[in-house]
Amino acid sequence: xxxxxxxxxxxxxxxxxxxxxxxxxxxxxxxxxxxxxxxxxxxxxxxxxxxxxxxxxxxxxxxxxxxxxxxxxxxxxxxxxxxxxxxxxxxxxxxxxxxxxxxxxxxxxxxxxxxxxxxxxxxxxxxxxxxxxxxxxxxxxxxxxxxxxxxxxxxxxxxxxxxxxxxxxxxxxxxxxxxxxxxxxxxxxxxxxxxxxxxxxxxxxxxxxxxxxxxxxxxxxxxxxxxxxxxxxxxxxxxxxxxxxxxxxxxxxxxxxxxxxxxxxxxxxxxxxxxxxxxxxxxxxxxxxxxxxxxxxxxxxxxxxxxxxxxxxxxxxxxxxxxxxxxxxxxxxxxxxxxxxxxxxxxxxxxxxxxxxxxxxxxxxxxxxxxxxxxxxxxxxxxxxxxxxxxxxxxxxxxxxxxxxxxxxxxxxxxxxxxxxxxxxxxxxxxxxxxxxxxxxxxxxxxxxxxxxxxxxxxxxxxxxxxxxxxxxxx
Length: 475
Hints:
It is a multi-pass membrane protein. By secondary structure, the protein is of the alpha+beta class. It folds into three domains: 163 residues, PAS domain (Beta-Lactamase, 2-Layer Sandwich); 87 residues, Signal transduction histidine kinase, dimerisation/phosphotransfer (DHp) domain (Helix Hairpins, Orthogonal Bundle); 157 residues, Histidine kinase-like ATPase, C-terminal domain (Heat Shock Protein 90, 2-Layer Sandwich), CATH 3.30.565.10. 54% of the residues lie in helices and 17% in strands. It is built from ten helices and twelve strands. Helix 7 packs across helix 9.
């Protein structure tokens, strides 16, 4: 349900973001269009005003309104032909109107100060009157006879302003429609995009502990989601494998603990049925002690792995002579190897290393006992020491025996993993529960080393690589 809620939130957010982005882009685009058109309109008005003012000044220079009145007016009409919504005022130095077009009274358009500014700066100004707007320009011409004429020209802006207003409204409507369409389109697109994802989520939600063997078919999802489905199926496979080994481990632990508990219960019941001598009680107590030690070792191994999982294993670093330590271990196993006439062959040498002697000893003992278990009678277990570099040493423990298939090798150090599920468990070793080699790997990892296995028809080889010095700050 949480995934569905998150999906719904995302399904709403994305269209909203697309809608906002569309609004933003269209607004910027419409502002650019409106601003450009307004700029062009102003430029056209100014150009038109300047053109008319220049033409009027030229005519004033050629024809005096007092002496050549008819020619002057006739030429003015020709100048103004083709100019729509254009208004002209010509005033002499006495304030008398020489010429004017029909339209607003331009003589009162601007205060004297602003009017003089237009003439001196050769600029234009906006004049609003009676709900109409005009752009005004002006000039002053001094003739040879001393006469002075002032020209005021205005062009109407109402049509331009109306067009700009219509353009602005149209662009606003276009933005609103586009945003709605973008929102609807995004929702539809996300709906069809999310549809296979929602189906996939529903299939995933149906998976529980009892259906870890279920796999989602890649044929039921779009091609772009195949890699996701494959990754999820691989995760399910790993989870199923872990839970399967966990179940096997639980069964193994129950079996291993049931055996000593059954023995303890049986022996105790037998003892209680009849009176026993002190010696008989002593023997039974010794027998019970062995069973307690087995359970204690099993629990210790589990606690050790729990510490390794929580990175709580802190090695007590001391100087270790691997050759001497392994030699003593070989002597320790002589009573067991003598029964099968198995011999040890220790070769090579290497420098001393820093490490936890108890931990490393436990790891090597687990590997050697594992080698003895799978070595046939009258065979030799070979142990080789070598110096790979000034900072790294290598230990190889090889035992002859049946080849381990290559697909088992990467999993040998996995907890609860067995190559042969039906093999007999040795109650004398914690590896019988499938955690002996897991303990070995956790110890080697704690020492910043590396361990792996090679196997062929000749032998199976456990290869350990260890640094000679471990930095204390890493722990």
